[in-house]
Design goal:
Blueprint lengths: L1 H9 L6 H16 L10 H18 L10 H8 L4 H10 L1
Helix pairs in contact: 1-2, 2-3
Length: 93
């Protein structure tokens, strides 16, 4: 739901990718990980969050799956760490 509210900002071609990454980290990721400290997280949940995150990041960078760009390259371009790392960090906190 948050993604749709901010997609106008995140998909704007005039905004640089690093700024989009900061905005993503502040607005979208906390909504994605809300309550993750108390979930009984399964591997299927982690996989679904990874897929959702990469779809959002690729959409922000205006890439598609057919462009064959690695996930690490897109994360580096936007300046965002993996959702798996953040989920682990949130759970340990």
């Amino acid at each position: 739901m948050k993604w749709r509210l901010v997609s106008g900002v995140l998909c704007d071609k005039k905004i640089p990718p690093k700024l989009k990454g900061k905005f993503y980290r502040v607005v979208v990721r906390p909504a994605l990980l809300y309550g993750a400290e108390c979930w009984p997280v399964k591997n299927s949940h982690v996989q679904k969050m990874c897929v959702a995150e990469m779809r959002m990041l690729k959409w922000m960078c205006e890439h598609t799956r057919s462009d064959k760009i690695r996930n690490e390259v897109i994360r580096k371009k936007v300046g965002v760490a993996s959702v798996v790392d953040k989920l682990r960090k949130v759970r340990l906190r």
